[in-house]
């Protein structure tokens, strides 16, 4: 009964986040922290940062993997899957519906889209301030924050985040190796190493076997599944990176027109949740709602297998004193990465006028000082953005 109650709670909370988390993966992490760490206290800031750092290492949608990890910590494998479904389903359904209306109505230039982008500025700024105070309290870690910020901001490459985290881990290893600390979070993941090994084996077996099976079979669905699975397996840097991969897989082959692809891309910017759900739009365009659900399963399957496969080993490694020292540096690097993403692309694509900045300030106060629920902040941002466009 307790397990069922927890699963229902996870589903309700993750679905609420799936309905209100606009602004891309970094903004999602801000919403997650506000809901799971600050409000519900399901885990502490350090545990949350540890989980974020792990998911930055892995290919796939980092915010979705963080959500899966939190669900797994709360209620095992079932909790992770329920958390994934709740966070993902709203945008999947919205994008499947957009298949039928995106080319009929011109929605992408509406003011509410700009309002939602400004909302992301307030959400990420709030997350950065909260995490920086806890994870970079001394000058050494503040310096690591700065270095990670510079690396990820000045080197426009998808592996820059991974490199920054590796360097920060090495710096933490040397700078804090003599420091007795309990800095690694006390998050407990009820997954066995045997289960983790099975998940990693399945991941690599599909990654290697699906292209071979696709080449040997004439079944179109196998080739399509392989395209989505490989796209989800080999992407570092978030949902925006997967879009050109999907374009190369499906537009030149004629499975989806360039016009429809671009319309779906615009729709994906307008809905909350992970950008990887753009696969639902492509799948629905090719094969109706069943195609949309199948494409979603295919592109997210690698992320699910990887997070379930690595969590048992990651949490065990953090018990090591040397690893705890490295995690101090890694956690500081996560803050620097968040600041970098806050500037580019969130700030540069959202704050275009003095009115945008004013709205961002209002939304930040609503979230940080007036302690209003995130969904109220999101709705306010959308409504005011539309009003500003009309005026």
From TrEMBL:
**Chain segments annotated as transmembrane:** 7-32, 81-102, 114-132, 144-176, 197-222, 258-283, 289-314, 326-346, 352-370
Q: Which GO terms describe its cellular component?
A: plasma membrane
In alphabetical order, the GO MF annotations are: chromate transmembrane transporter activity
**Signal peptide: which range, if any?**
none
The family database entries (Pfam families) matched by this protein are listed as:
Chromate_transp
Q: Name its cellular compartments.
A: Cell membrane
What are the alphabetically sorted keywords of the record? Cell membrane, Membrane, Transmembrane, Transmembrane helix
* Membrane topology listed for this record: Multi-pass membrane protein
Mostly located where?
A: membrane
Q: Which InterPro entries match?
A: Chr_Tranpt_l_chain, Chromate_transpt
Q: Which family does it belong to?
A: Belongs to the chromate ion transporter (CHR) (TC 2.A.51) family.
Matches recorded under NCBIfam families: 2A51
From the Swiss-Prot or TrEMBL record, give the protein name: Chromate efflux transporter
């Amino acid at each position: 009964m307790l397990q069922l109650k927890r699963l229902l709670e996870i589903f309700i909370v993750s679905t609420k986040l799936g309905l209100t988390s606009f602004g891309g993966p970094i903004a999602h992490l801000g919403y997650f922290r506000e809901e799971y760490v600050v409000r519900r206290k399901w885990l502490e800031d350090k545990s949350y940062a540890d989980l974020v750092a792990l998911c930055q290492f892995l290919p796939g949608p980092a915010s979705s993997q963080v959500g899966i990890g939190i669900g797994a910590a709360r209620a095992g494998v079932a909790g992770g899957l329920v958390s994934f479904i709740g966070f993902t389903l709203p945008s999947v359904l919205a994008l499947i519906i957009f298949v039928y209306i995106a080319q009929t109505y011109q929605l992408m230039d509406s003011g509410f889209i700009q309002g939602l982008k400004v909302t992301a500025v307030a959400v990420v700024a709030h997350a950065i301030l909260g995490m920086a105070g806890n994870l970079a309290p001394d000058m050494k870690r503040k310096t690591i924050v700065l270095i990670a910020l510079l690396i990820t901001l000045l080197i426009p490459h998808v592996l820059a985040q991974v490199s920054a985290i590796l360097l920060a881990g090495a710096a933490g290893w040397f700078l804090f190796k003599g420091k007795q600390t309990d800095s690694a979070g006390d998050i407990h993941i009820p997954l066995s190493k045997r289960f983790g090994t099975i998940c990693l084996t399945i991941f690599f077996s599909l990654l290697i076997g699906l292209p071979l099976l696709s080449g040997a079979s004439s079944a179109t669905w196998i080739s399509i599944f392989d395209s989505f699975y490989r796209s989800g397996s080999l992407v570092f840097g978030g949902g925006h990176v997967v879009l050109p991969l999907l374009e190369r897989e499906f537009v030149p082959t004629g499975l989806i027109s360039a016009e429809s692809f671009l319309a779906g891309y615009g729709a994906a910017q307008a809905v909350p949740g992970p950008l990887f759900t753009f696969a639902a739009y492509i799948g629905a365009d090719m094969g109706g709602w069943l195609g949309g659900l199948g494409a979603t399963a295919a592109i997210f399957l690698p992320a699910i297998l990887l997070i379930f496969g690595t969590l048992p080993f990651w949490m065990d490694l953090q018990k090591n004193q040397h690893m705890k020292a490295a995690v101090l540096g890694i956690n500081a690097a996560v803050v620097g990465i968040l600041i970098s993403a806050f500037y580019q692309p969130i700030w540069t694509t959202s704050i275009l006028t003095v009115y945008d900045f004013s709205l961002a300030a209002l939304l930040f106060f609503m979230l940080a000082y007036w302690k209003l629920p995130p969904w109220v902040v999101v709705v306010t941002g959308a409504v005011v953005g539309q009003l500003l466009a009309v005026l």
